[in-house]
Amino acid sequence: MGVSSVQFARMMDKLAEVERAQARDYTSFSVRGKRFGYHWPRTKTVGLKQTLSEQLALVAERPDVFEVQFTAGGFGWVVVHLTKIDADELSELLYEAWRLSAPELLVDDNPLPSAPRA
C-alpha cells in the first residue's frame, strides 16, 4: 500500500484541463480556475476538496490516513497521507475533488480514469 509522488502525478495527468501552480513548498491544482487539490512532496501528503459529509466520514473512519484540512465554501478539505492509501482509493478521491470543481460538461466528457500502477 502507499502511493508515490510519481504515481500521484500520473493520476493528476489523467484528469482533464488540470492547471498547476508551483509555490515554494507545494503545488496546487485547479480546473478552469477552480482549486481542487494541493501536493506537499516533503510531507508526502495531498489536500483534496471533498463534500463536508465525505470529509467527516473519511477522518472518522481512518484518522491515520486522513486529517481535516479546512472548510470553505460549503466544502471540506482533507489531508491525505500518500504512504497510507492505496492507488485505487486515491484515484477515486482525486477524481471526486476534480469533479467538484470542474464544469458539468467537462465532467460528462471525462469519466473516472483507472489508477496507474506503480
TrEMBL record:
It comes from the Bacteria. InterPro entries: YjbR-like_sf, YjbR/MT2646/Rv2570-like. SUPFAM superfamilies: YjbR-like. The lineage of its organism: Bacteria, Bacillati, Actinomycetota, Actinomycetes, Pseudonocardiales. This is YjbR protein. Pfam families: YjbR.
